[in-house]
Amino acid sequence: MDWSQLKIADLDLLLAVCGYESRATFVAEEVYGNVTQTVILDYGARSGLAYDANRAKFDKMKNRIFLSLDGDYISRLQSIIQENAKLKPENERITVLFDVSCSSRRLMSKVLLSLDKTLRGRLDLKCTYAVSKYYEPPIDELPSHISEPVVGELSGWSNDLAQPPCAIIGLGFEPGRAIGCLDYLEIPEVRLFQPFGPDPRFIDAVETANQQLIEDAGHRHLLPYSIMEPIDTYLKLESMVYGLLDKFRPVLIPLGPKIFSATCIILAIRNAPQICVWRTSSGSLAQPLDIETDGNVAVFNVGAIHAKSIEPLSKA
Q1: Rounded Cα–Cα distance for residues 182 and 149 (Å)
Q2: pTM over 0.85
């Protein structure tokens, strides 16, 4: 199912994120009329920038619930999901759209794990990503203030700790953070995923920002992926990880576009506890950036998260 089909499809549950980026409402505004219930994961007014405008747009939507990302919000989210599931017969699947465009990687992991736990056997998941307009990469990069597994459940574990780690890094505009992770984790082997999308200017900008990292890893370990083809990206990532498992402990470091983070987290959940997903961030030191969408939306047709095979994934 592509974006043109998804916009007119009936959905049981929409999960959107209300933060400071202008693109936060783009997907929700297109689909909410066909949604039984919308849950808005709300970062709160502290987000600044476009937050107030986003909140006002979400507030006008029918059948919406604002869920503050404070305290035990995951338990509240699970309760909402369970109540939504009761609206359909137990033998029918629950179609959920999770817009990851403005989600942190930690939030994304918690939500995907919760969906898998709460709707296992009934979940039909689709993740969307509103592609950003081109913007110039920041001149200066703040140091990493946070460097840790994205969540405890995805910290990874191997039966053979003698195996060396191998990092699979999604490239973005944060080369210093990627290099910092390699140094912190003492990772000797690296594979790189380089994004490309509708605007070719991003390709040159990402290559320039990551020139040193690409040279150190070697161009033979650089794999391009399309932002607009997340299923193909998932298959490439899965193939690479499975090829590494015999000799290495894979560590996924999904910098760059959030749709790549979604593919990494889904793969790690399906293969837990073998794969670690790592996050790195400058935390509260980071300068917020208001990002607008260019109007393109990537759709990741996940299906059932916990499925071990790729069969639930379909372009249809």
Answers
A1: 14
A2: yes
Residue (of 45, 38, 35) closest to 16 by Cα position: 38
Read off the tokens for 298.
């990537």
Nearby residues of 144 by Cβ (< 8 Å), 6 or more positions away: 176, 177, 180, 181, 280, 281, 282
Three-class SS state of 310: coil
Distance CA 283, CA 274 (A): 27
Query: Given 3.40.50.720, 3.10.20.740, 3.40.50.11700, 3.20.20.70, which CATH number is that of 146-285?
Result: 3.40.50.11700
Closest CA to 15 of 110, 124, 94, 100: 100
Maximum distance among all alpha carbons in the chain? 55
Tens of pLDDT, residue by residue over 151-181, are 999 999 877 778 999 999 999 987 788 888 8
Q: pLDDT tens digit string along 51-94?
A: 999 999 999 999 999 999 998 999 999 999 999 999 999 999 99
